[in-house]
Amino acid sequence: MTMTVERHTASAAGGEERECAVRLDHVTKSFGSRRVLDDISLDVAEGRGFVILGRSGTGKSVALRHIVGLVRPDSGRVFVRGDEISALSGEPLARVRRQIGFLFQSAALFDSISVGENVAFPMRRHTPWPEAEIRDRVMAKLQSVGLDQDYEKMPGDLSGGMRKRAGLARAMALDPALLLVDEPSAGLDPITCEEIDELLLGLKQQQGTTLVVVTHNIPSARKLGDELVMLHEGRIAAQGPVQVLEQSDDPLVRAFMASSHSG
Known about the structure:
Layout: E1 9-11, E2 17-31, E3 34-45, E4 49-53, H1 60-67, E5 75-80, E6 83-84, H2 90-97, E7 100-103, H3 115-126, H4 131-144, H5 160-171, E8 178-182, H6 190-207, E9 210-214, H7 218-224, E10 227-232, E11 235-240, H8 242-246, H9 251-258
Parallel strand pairs: 4-9, 4-10, 7-8, 8-9
Antiparallel strand pairs: 1-2, 2-3, 2-5, 5-6, 10-11
Helix pairs in contact: 3-4, 3-5, 4-5
């Protein structure tokens, strides 16, 4: 498969121009007769937090699956750090995916192996690291999310918040430059939501990780998002910093931003 590499820049806060980590270029996607994404274009700047908002069924998670190459657009193109991921397959697709971490809504841990082995899984699959190094790296990842005492525990023994943190440790196992997060607050209490938000914010601020977060949690969006986009009926209803969405002429956007919903 021939790779298409294009470099783009995206505007960050204060008008600063940064390399583009993700670019959706006129992406349209339908499932049967239902058009989920309708000519969507957006740019995500490297090292920033980009939040996708919207009501259930508006295409938020479908947009994430396009970015990681799990879904291909009916029309349009998707770029990740300059590579056209929507045109790749095989090893070129796998190479781009190794730059991406994905924290699933349910954490999606393997229930038949321990927490530590879950975090070790991508290291064993994608690196030549010896077992001793893998063990050390796993312990460091678990410590970073407050689970360093839980290596041997099985996922079924964890609370919802602990499972989410274990999923985050696994998503960051290979130190990806880009982290995709699907509904990080789903099913969690407000205190645990704040803890997960702080972990994600730390990745952005301390490691320069680019975050693309799908959520309907407005407090989380305010904390994590340098830029927000709201989808409605498959199209972009509003886009910009928090203040831009708060002052939108669209009453639906303003109502959504005024919500105190937290999970």
